[in-house]
Write a structure and sequence with these properties.
The complex is a heterodimer of chains A (276) and B (310).
Chain A lengths: L3 H27 L2 H21 L3 H19 L5 H22 L4 H9 L7 H30 L1 H6 L4 H23 L4 H15 L3 H26 L3 H27 L6 H5 L1
Helix pairs in contact in A: 1-6, 1-8, 1-9, 1-10, 2-3, 2-4, 2-8, 2-9, 3-4, 3-8, 5-8, 6-8, 9-10, 9-11, 10-11
Chain B lengths: L1 H7 L8 H27 L2 H9 L1 H11 L3 H19 L4 H30 L4 H7 L9 H28 L1 H6 L4 H42 L3 H25 L12 H32 L15
Helix pairs in contact in B: 2-8, 2-10, 2-11, 3-6, 3-10, 4-5, 4-6, 4-7, 5-6, 5-10, 7-10, 8-10, 10-11, 10-12, 11-12
The chains are: A mainly alpha (276), B mainly alpha (310).
């Protein structure tokens, strides 16, 4: 399991599992889960386009992820955010299907972009992934306080002179960066699991933001490592294990909280609460 | 006249059997999706709509594996997933989105597994693309009657639930106060959404099905504020866009890059997106003109000057 050709997979998965949940924590806090789902899928179209032109897929991923984020941010200023996200998503996926229709790429290549191919990472891709990941973490560190405030209390942030829209745009760019880092490893469709799953689980367990960030990184690392091990043993697609483990963790945390609440609830609930 | 017709429609357009099926199926799907889509947009459940149609991937891949018609795979998985989403999700909007996303990606993970098994068993890899991106031209006539039937079921259910659904979408507190079971209604609507998503995923692929659900509805709601009118309008916009997309896709065999043809899904989505952007532009121009007209009259409520802090 720790042979030479597997070493890259472990390193890359570790990098992604550190970066994705840090971004994901804010995704959960801001309730922008749809955007976090849409950007990686849009990026997939970019990868298809890049492979059509014969470029490195990571450029296509980056360009389309950034384009999707900025487009959603800009159009979302006027229309409904979720509608704009859905429309941008389908438009870019449609473009992806166009590129796929033109290209002569083999289907397995596309399959691995959609569902992830952790075992096919080469040595020089690690450097790029690490660089992008570091950039992502740096951006989050710089934006940490205003981002937290705009997520929790947008009115308060506006009153303090923070431009909500500008922070929103900056955050979308960070999501795009994280996408570019992670999609080649976990795939466009499953990137969401690693980003949001551990973060949602951590939020269930603690209310303190910094604790939640650390906890979600730990959960994501465990998820990623266990998934690679399981995929190695069974030869099944790694994406399946990532999503299954992430969802199981979320369900466990939710179940735990539900039981805790049920025990600690006062004997006679308030009149208003029973209806809710 | 003959020349213009020839330029618009490539030769053989009217006589091709796949095209005729596509035109009919596209119309049925667009009408149902338009009506359901308006409620979806009003409820702010675009993500759920997208998820349910994307989840067709799971049902479709499972059906391929078992060897039954994909349509029933789509319908069954849609129902199961809609139930799971409601069960996991909380009432808050952000919690709902996270739950939707997690259920969605878990189901996608499962479909990755199913597709993997499929490639092992049959060593065909094209299935992924077929399910995701679908093609109106690849339909066969057999599923058409079943689709029309399901479409009618959808519309009848929607008509029955129309008033309480609308009230609970606009104000769930008011609906609860009037004794409407808001939670049950939410589940019922998700099931309805699943049904219509199944209907459209089987014909047009999972991407296009969310495009048909959200695109025409969002456009129609920009043009009119009345929900019933918007539903009809959305159906018509969806239908016409689908037809234009079909014509474009059919013609595209004559366009570069030589002879490959553009996917019909892309053509339809592009038309829908363009229409949405154009109506946005139109409404912006209209408000600008109204503001200009009002500029002459004395303004009572001046906008507050924006204060910037260093």
């Amino acid at each position: 399991m720790f042979a030479d050709y597997m070493l890259n997979a472990w390193v890359v998965a570790t990098i992604v599992a550190v970066v994705a949940p840090v971004v994901g924590f804010f995704v959960v806090l801001r309730g922008s889960a749809f955007v976090a789902h849409a950007v990686p899928e849009a990026a997939f179209a970019g990868a298809a386009g890049a492979s059509l032109l014969g470029l490195n897929t990571i450029f296509g991923l980056g360009a389309f992820a950034l384009g999707a984020s900025l487009g959603i941010g800009m159009l979302g200023r006027r229309g409904r955010h979720d509608v704009v996200t859905a429309l941008a998503l389908v438009m870019l996926l449609g473009a992806g299907s166009l590129f796929l229709g033109w290209s002569t790429e083999y289907a397995p290549e596309i399959y691995s972009l959609l569902f992830g191919e952790v075992l096919g990472v080469s040595g020089n891709e690690i450097g790029l992934t690490a660089l992008l990941g570091a950039l992502c973490l740096g951006a989050i560190a710089v934006l940490y306080r205003p981002l937290l405030l705009t997520s929790v209390a947008p009115e308060l942030a506006a009153a303090r002179g923070i431009r909500n829209h500008r922070i929103d745009m900056a955050f979308l760019v960070v999501v795009a960066l994280a996408t570019t880092t992670a999609v080649p490893v976990v795939g466009a469709l499953l990137m969401f699991s690693l980003m949001v799953g551990p973060a949602a689980t951590a939020r269930c367990l603690t209310d303190r933001p910094l604790h939640a960030v650390v906890l979600s990184v730990v959960i994501a690392l465990l998820t990623a490592w266990a998934s690679i091990a399981a995929a190695y043993q069974t030869n099944w697609p790694v994406g399946f294990f990532v999503t299954a483990f992430a969802f199981a963790g979320y369900l466990l945390a939710h179940g735990g909280r539900w039981i805790r609440n049920a025990y600690s609830r006062p004997q006679a609930p308030l009149a208003g609460e029973s209806a809710a | 006249m003959e020349g213009i017709l020839h330029a618009l429609f490539a030769p053989g357009f009217g006589h091709s059997e796949p095209v005729r099926t596509a035109v009919l199926a596209g119309a049925v799907v667009a009408l149902v999706s338009g009506a359901v889509g308006v409620i979806t947009v009003l409820r702010g459940q675009s993500f759920a709509g997208h998820a349910l149609s994307a989840l067709g991937t799971l049902g479709g891949s499972a059906a391929f594996l078992v060897g039954i018609t994909p349509l029933w795979g789509f319908v069954t998985s849609g129902f199961i997933v809609a139930g799971a989403m409601e069960l996991v999700g909380t009432q808050r909007r952000s919690g709902r989105d996270v739950a939707t996303g997690l259920v969605l990606s878990t189901a996608l993970g499962l479909s990755a597994l199913f597709l993997y098994f499929e490639t092992i068993v049959n060593s065909t890899t094209g299935v992924t693309i077929t399910i995701l991106f679908g093609s109106l031209f690849a339909l066969n006539g057999i599923t058409l009657p079943a689709m029309i039937l399901l479409g009618i079921v959808c519309l009848v259910l929607l008509a029955l639930l129309y008033r309480p659904l609308l009230l609970s979408s606009v104000s769930s507190e008011l609906a609860a106060a009037r004794g409407i079971p808001v939670r049950t209604l939410g589940v019922a609507f998700l099931m309805l959404l699943a049904l219509s998503a199944a209907l459209s995923s089987v014909t047009v692929g999972t991407i296009l099905s969310s495009a048909l659900l959200i695109g025409p509805a969002a456009t129609a709601l920009r043009l009119t504020k009345r929900p019933a009118v918007a539903m009809v309008l959305a159906g018509v916009i969806g239908m016409v866009s689908t037809w234009v997309g079909i014509v474009l896709a059919y013609d595209s065999y004559r366009w570069p890059p030589a002879g490959k043809g553009w996917p019909v899904s892309f053509c339809v989505v592009a038309v829908l997106f363009t229409v949405y952007l154009l109506t946005g532009l139109g409404s912006r121009l209209r408000t600008a003109r109204v503001r200009q007209r009002r500029a002459g009259a004395p303004v009572t409520g001046q906008p507050l000057p924006t204060v910037r802090q260093g």
